[in-house]
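During the second year of the project, the team shifted from modelling isolated chains to modelling whole assemblies. The rationale, set out in the original proposal, was that interfaces cannot be judged from single-chain predictions alone. As a representative example for this report, we include one of the complexes processed in the last quarter. Its constituent sequences, exactly as entered into the pipeline, are reproduced here:
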Amino acid sequence: MELKDFIEKFAEQFDDTDASEIKGDTVFKELDEWSSLIALSVIAMVDEEYDITIKGDDIRNSTTVEDLFNAVKAKA
Amino acid sequence: MYNPYSLEGKIILITGASSGIGRAVAVECSKLGAKVIITARNNERLKETYRMLEGDGHLLFTCDLSNPDAIVQLVSEIPIINGMVCNAGTNKMIPISFMKYENIQEILNVNTVAPMLLLKEVCKKKKLSKGASVVFTSSMAGVGAAATGNGVYTASKGAISSFLKVAALELAPRKVRVNAVCPGMTRTPMIYDDNVQDEELKKDMERYPLGRYGEPQDIAWAMIYLLSDASTWVTGTNLVIDGGLTIR
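Output from the structure prediction step:
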């Protein structure tokens, strides 16, 4: 699992936020477009793309996109 | 003692009785004098419910009602009942773009198809007494309260909330009544969906005019009203129990 690939898929969950704004160190909950629906979409994306189940808590405990990537990776 | 809500002498079948609303309604029914028949998939937790019941003569069946054969089997083994609470339900929050055939099928199977087939089977096998009361656990989602990620669940409950009206019509000649209770967010294991974060629940709770989520007993007592002879003239209704949320 590659961070670059994860960031791309993470960014796909946004409509109005340009993918270039989303990097490993982005504090994603501070993005204007961040919402509970996007949180659900990220959980579903991880399930679909990586076959890994993360929970709402994993999102809560992550600050940056890379934190979340590491949380997903830890479950692989 | 005068109590129009007494369930003395009634036999009541309750599905999904291993936790949450199903467990609460089973216990409350037993306290009001009913003999209950409890079912669920999880035998351990169902036995816990059984131990909480008051009085004796209660029955327990561990079965998975999403399997149509299990429904036929269950109904063949139970006595004639005076009431039924079709409560077993499931949910998973999935945004529309991630819905899968399997998710949709699983949620609809448990929430919509199983209650329909169970009602069919008790009718066909004449296991509903004259004047029996059927109660479905729908949801405020079933009567128009929308929340993001809740599409499949909402559809499954909406189907039940409209199905019950036809059932009420068809069964009225035998004085069988069919109603649903439509709870707002109730503190049961089901609402602690792994996909939802605690802060979101806290924020959500603040939207309730009465300032809190429901407790399983809040819903159980509404069901008791619908099961009792106090509601003999009530059929085809969706009774919303939501702490005032849908006023807004």
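The interface with chain A takes residues 93-95, 97-98, 148-149, 193-200 of chain B (CB under 8 Å). Chain B has a mean pLDDT of 95.
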